Write the structure tokens for this entry.
Amino acid sequence: MCGIVGYVGAQAAAPLLLEGLLKLEYRGYDSAGIAVMNDGQLLVSKVKGRIANLCEKTEGGRQVPGTIGIGHTRWATHGAPTDVNAHPHLSNDGRFAVVHNGIIENYLALREELTAKGFHFESDTDTEVIVHLLERYYAGDVKAAVIKTVSRLQGSYALGVVCADAPNTVFAAREASPLIIGLGSGEQYFASDVTALVPYTRSVLYLDDGEFAALTANGVTVFNGAGQTVDKPLQHIAWDIQAAEKDGFDHFMLKEIFEQPAAVRATIAPRMRGRAICLDDVRADDLKNIRRIVITACGSAYYAGCAGKYAIEALCRLPVQVELASELRYSDPLMDEQTLLIVLSQSGETADTIAAMKECKARGAKTLSIVNVVGSTVATLADHVLYTHAGPEIAVATTKGYTTQLAVLYLFALYMAQVQGTVSGEEFNRLFGELEQLPHRVQNALDMNPGTERLARKYGGASSVFFIGRNTDYAVALEGALKLKEISYIHAEGYAAGELKHGTIALIDEHQPVIALCCNGAVADKTVSNAVEVKARGAEVLAVTFKGDTTLAAVADDMLFVPHMEPLFAPIAEIVPLQLFAYYVARENGCDIDKPKNLAKSVTVE
Ligand code: F6R
């Protein structure tokens, strides 16, 4: 979704802003723009469509000289993706330019108020009220105008502001939308995402909600909403630039699929010491009184939660409820201090997830976040954080984000089982050994399916595909179907295998391939029977099963394999051939794999 960048220093700002925006391209957008200050004048350039168009229009930034500026990629919410609606927006007097991520919920009332006062609106955006408020409240002090302006805004924002009267300062403000300041030597940056900062600096500070910052070439001052200075700790970003490059792979998604063994290893290894699980600052005392767990997330992270539920319930014998964050937030949720809310998020900035988390926290739940982006909102809101160490995930469709979430959920399940006393010492040791093997299992799953590309060619022409399974296999079916549909645009549905006969089997015929997931020994036979049923109705069956399994060979037309492993943890390997399958189908069909249509990497609006 929208991205913002800002720069102040001695270099030409526009090329740096364009470069920063290109780093944010993966988040999804439909227009882009920059504003640069030159000799006390604001120069704005913006276009509908790709950043490449903006580069062309500005001749790589050369047409927009100046050493201080702001930039934006817009993902349309209020108003169509047009040049006019693209950011930055200018005040009527041309003194202020603003870029904005988020949504101003009271923009209609503000627009009416400002129109009545004679302000003229150019765009349909909610953002434009901000720049007119700045003009309205400006009386020679930009900082005071920023304070007054943000006090009028309801909703979420990460803002970048430049003012012609403050030619050496760029302002950044944050409320419920990420904003990170990067500190350089004689130059400073800000961005909504660390990937835009790592090429220039590793020293960052994270703004908290309600704070804003004034950046000059010589330094950064952070203020609270009342305008008092705030001391912020400097943090170091460990991600390297290489991690955000394609590294010879055709797509980030493929690269990230192959990074999974290393990502899972980086996530679990530091937490498995000797024969003990150490969950960072989570202590046994924090979990002893927990009687119920609610997991909340969106999309693939929600499906990771669905798979994790089986492991936690089986090992800890505690009830686990998995809720879509977009539903939980409006469900008047039942929470108390004996309920642990586990929040899963790769980006840590998903609007629904944050809102559900706040709702549950306010009702007394203890919160544990499993999140990839350090310093993100989901991380900062939680009582405890367990980071997934997946590194930057650039492809819109998550892969290593999902598998590392599973890895942490499995670690948590076994740790919690020990705390609750629901696992014997012998069983703990056996499962600990299984967890240690997870990176190898994921690697095996990558290695043992060389035929996936051929299968993608065979099945890639289907207009609809069903993924069926039971228990953990069902959870993987949901994620497998999402992977296929979001990048290949083929309709796909993850379905509980036993439910087919209650209506949906009416859809099955020779045009409807079925992918049958059979890696959960306790119920695999049942899914095999369902596979036989769909085959009898003409469907081709592609089965996913443990390597060496022969029972399915007689039923299935084709097979994908997973290494033999503990079935509770099998989803982490079982998804791998399905990620590859979705990738190759999308490639076969000529789709824009890393940036599927209509999708954004970080869904920061409701
Ligand atoms: C699908 C995908 C999305 C995300 C969802 C939540 O491949 O990536 O479904 O899983 O938007 O995002 P995060 O994990 O950032 O909260």
The mean pLDDT is 93. The pocket of fructose -6-phosphate is lined by residues 298-301, 345-347, 350, 353, 397-398, 401, 482, 486, 602-603 (CB under 6 Å). The longest helix spans residues 400-420.
